[in-house]
Amino acid sequence: SPPQQPPITLPADRLSLSSKAMSSSPSLEILVRDAEGFIVWNGPPFSSNGQPTPKNERVSCSSTKFSLDGSKFMAVKSDGTISIYDSASLREMQSFAVANVTATEISPCGTYLQTFQKPTTPQEKNVSLWNTDTGDLAHSLYQKSITKTTWPSIRFSPDESSACRLATNEVQFFDPKDFSKGITSRIRVPGVAAFELSKTPASHVAVFVPEVKGSPGSVQIFGCGKDAESQPSARRSFFRCSSVQFSWNHGSTGLLVVVQSDVDKTNKSYYGETKLHYLTVDGTHEGLVPLRKEGPVHDVQWSFSGSEFAVVYGFMPACVTIFDKKCKPLMELGEGPYNTLRWNPKGRILCVAGFGNLPGDMTFWDVVSKKQLGSNKAEWSVTSEWSPDGRYFLTASTAPRRQIDNGIKIFNYDGKRYFKKMFERLYQVEWKPESPDRFDEISELLKSVESLKLEEGKSQGQGSSQKKPVASIPTIQRPAAYRPPHAKQAAAIQAELLGVNPEGEMSKNALRNKKKREKKKAAEAAAASGSNNA
């Protein structure tokens, strides 16, 4: 890994504006869970020794998760107790003792805790929704089993203004403030297999119906709170689709759909075929996103402004393209070993990386000025995430995906490594969520750093005009290729028969015979040319 480099330090006058904003901004915090439990660190910038300071005593647990707004977080302890903590004070607010729990989820604003228990009888309501403030049971229902597409059973919008669940041939809606009202509305969609509620505002819901008996599959967009027989505002049909991934933009005006097929009929990919579709809620655009290279769609991410999105796609080396809301290319970021995209919360900087089975290359782009800020490498990374203020990028190698070399790396927004810490066993690392609006814009910092670099360049140019001696670069001999013993023996036999030694050099007799042959050829060529002239 590259050597650790100190962060860029700006003069006091340059940071006057930024320091004022940072004084009113919330401090960054990092939740870390290892083999001994979870602990919360204060986030960067760290103290003078460059190490984070723990904010609490380590608590033994098997899993943790923040609510989307960062106000609360839950911890499932080793004895099965589920505890709810206040993120600001790290004080335990509520605890729930629910037997045989196999899955848990906390709502976006931390109002509800959802638990799933293995059912023993069909009459048993095994999905429970608990109020985290009072500890009361708000709602319960029966669900036979859960998968990635069906859990959590009850989905909330980011602001908890809407709640719904997937049932047989329909999507059911609830009043998030009063679940005792039961189902308030429903949308009938025969054969629906997956759905996704739009982001704030929670005005629409997208549903997926797989293809059945020769009829195509489809993705449809409905308005929330409509009657059961309402018609979709947008619809897109396609064949060869076994699963989909939904991605709503911020503002709930557009939907990206990655359609996955288990079989690639062109036989170019063992992992099947993927296509990227784009739909708007008003139905003005429904079609494929024009990608200029064949191959899978590795990742697609909306910017936080919701006005553009980035796609990394194609057979390796993959292409990276930024599109606007009308699917028109805005910027090409070249090709490379990439499969991951992470937008800065401020929407200005994009990290393009290659994690998983790729080497871990990262490049950081300023999308506004259309230039690359820097690059680095984070090998074996399993998770990656921007800090809420958009100034730091965290990567982590965690178990059980990786059983060795577990650790945390934090980089500045321009790719320079800021912090590194290794662990014997690391399970989880998360920034405490905060609204990006509570932090200052990063554009001021970018301008300050750019002007500082220009001044440093001028000061170096005004120095001594004497040229520094350039150190000679030693030539490095390439290691010889491995030769197995039988090949060495064959080379020795060849030397005896043809007069060539194993190293490839000719013997004296072979060299003498070669010169004779060359002289004979030259004489024959001269004689032939003379006869032609005559």
Give structural notes.
This protein has helices spanning 16-24, 443-461, 485-498, 508-533, and strands at 29-34, 37-42, 63-66, 72-76, 81-86, 91-97, 101-106, 112-117, 127-131, 137-141, 154-156, 163-167, 170-174, 183-188, 194-197, 204-209, 217-223, 234-238, 243-248, 254-261, 273-280, 286-288, 297-302, 308-313, 318-324, 329-336, 340-343, 349-353, 361-366, 371-377, 383-386, 392-397, 406-412, 417-423, 426-431. The chain has 534 residues and is mainly β. The strands form nine sheets. It has a four-stranded antiparallel sheet, with no helix packed on it. A four-stranded antiparallel sheet has the order 7-8-9-10, with no helix packed on it. Strands 11-12-13-14 form a four-stranded antiparallel sheet, with no helix packed on it. β23 (297-302) and β24 form a beta hairpin.
Q: Helix count?
A: 4
Query: How far from one another are the termini?
Result: 74 Å
What number is the mean pLDDT? 82
Computed over alpha carbons, the radius of gyration is: 31 Å
Structural class based on helices, strands and sheet pairing = mainly beta
Main sheet specs = 4 strands, antiparallel
Characteristic key phrases:
4-stranded antiparallel sheet, 534 residues, disordered N terminus, mainly beta, 4 helices, TIF2A
